[in-house]
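Help!! Second protein's tokens look totally different from the first
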Amino acid sequence: QVQLVESGGGLVQPGGSLRLSCATSGILFRDYIMAWYRQAPGKDREFVAHITWRSGSTYYADSVKGRFTISRDNAKNTVYLQMNSLKPEDTAVYYCQTGIYWGQGTQVTVSS
């Protein structure tokens, strides 16, 4: 049974940082791409970043490039999203995804 479980969301002030985690189980990772998406109220879900499990190569949306870092821990089967210099427009529910599988999401709110 495949499971993706996000955690680490919360309320943070503009300029602050959060680290999201996506704990996975039931997936053979070697050839997968793990991705983070987000969905703000009233908006479509949008791509944030992805990482290739085997090589660790990464790709980012322009809106987060230079502020967010995606990484993975092979031993823990976990993918992370380090978010720095957060802005109010980063407020959204953040989801991890691989193939047809999605997590339940974790809320990130950036507000003073």
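Here's the second one for comparison:
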Amino acid sequence: VEVVESGGGLVQAGGSLRLSCAASGTTFSISAMGWYRQSPGKQRELVARLTTGGGTTDYAESVKGRFTVSKDTDNSTLFLQMNSLEPDDTAVYSCYLDPTSGPRMWGQGTLVTVSS
């Protein structure tokens, strides 16, 4: 099983990026998926998450109204649309997948840098 993120990069403040998180090599069910981020000197922060069954979403207060989490129909790819980016959004973003049975799976992380 491999979880791979993509879409990070350098963007100016006010710009947008879309992160993707693709799971391959798995046939088991996923119950929840989400994104964390961490920047130097700060605690890791849960940015957004969703449940695959009911489609419930949750967001950190700092990104509400700017970020949108979504997935594809077979729960193999998770997305994070990030709009109106701010320098404080600069961080390594990591996705996770929670199988219905088994440990949480993590991606390797992708760096997002927002310049002022």
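Reply: Different proteins will give different token patterns, so don't panic. The first strand starts at residue 2 and ends at 6.
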